[in-house]
Design brief:
alpha+beta, Alpha-Beta Plaits, five-stranded mixed β-sheet, globular, binds flavin-adenine dinucleotide
């Protein structure tokens, strides 16, 4: 199947209440599954970093919607490319708090000391998202093994 991967960074608009994030995640899970879109959303007060993977028309339309969404601003496209396989196939939209990420994990992944998506290069952003997804998979496997 023809797939694309899109990554962007943006800032949360001032005045968005904390429930705003919950509503974004609810809408993402609901809509993305129907669109065949998978990905990861990282948020911290420094901003959002999101990767969307799926059919080009679905990803393009979704990105246009997100850019118009006044809950975020300064959306900056980091990467857009065709891909033959998804890197985040199991999540309609996985969510991470960027400022909760272990500093040891950040070191070596980005040139920044703290999670700052607006300052990341495309290569750093993909390395970062891949690393946090790997950590999450490890945690989920461990939890399943403990049961
Ligand atoms: P609705 O059911 O219409 O809205 C869901 C809830 O959000 C409602 O309570 C509504 O009041 C509220 N809401 C909707 N739009 C706004 C707005 N502009 N300002 C304030 N409140 C609003 N959507 C996805 O489907 N998939 C994604 O992966 C995704 N990622 C996002 C990432 C970011 C950083 C942001 C800011 C938004 C993202 N969104 C995503 C939301 C997207 O911009 C649209 O709001 C959403 O897709 C609308 O879907 P809906 O019509 O089903 O939502």
């Amino acid at each position: 199947m023809n797939l694309v991967r899109l990554m962007y960074a943006s800032r949360m608009a001032k005045g968005v209440d904390p429930d705003g994030l919950t509503r974004i995640l609810d809408a993402s899970k609901r809509n993305n599954a129907a669109l065949g879109v998978t990905g990861v959303l990282c948020y911290s007060p420094a901003g959002f970093l999101q990767v969307l993977e799926g059919p080009p028309e679905a990803v393009n339309e979704l990105y246009r919607r997100i850019v118009r969404d006044r809950r975020n601003e300064e959306a900056t496209l980091l990467a857009y490319a065709e891909t033959s396989r998804r890197r985040f196939p199991e999540w309609s939209m996985a969510y991470f708090r960027g400022d909760g990420i272990d500093r040891a994990l950040l070191r070596g992944l980005t040139s920044e000391k703290a999670f700052d998506p607006m300052a990341m290069t495309a290569a750093e952003a993909l390395r970062f998202l891949t690393a946090v997804a790997t950590e999450r998979r490890r945690f989920l496997q461990q939890s399943a093994g403990d049961e």
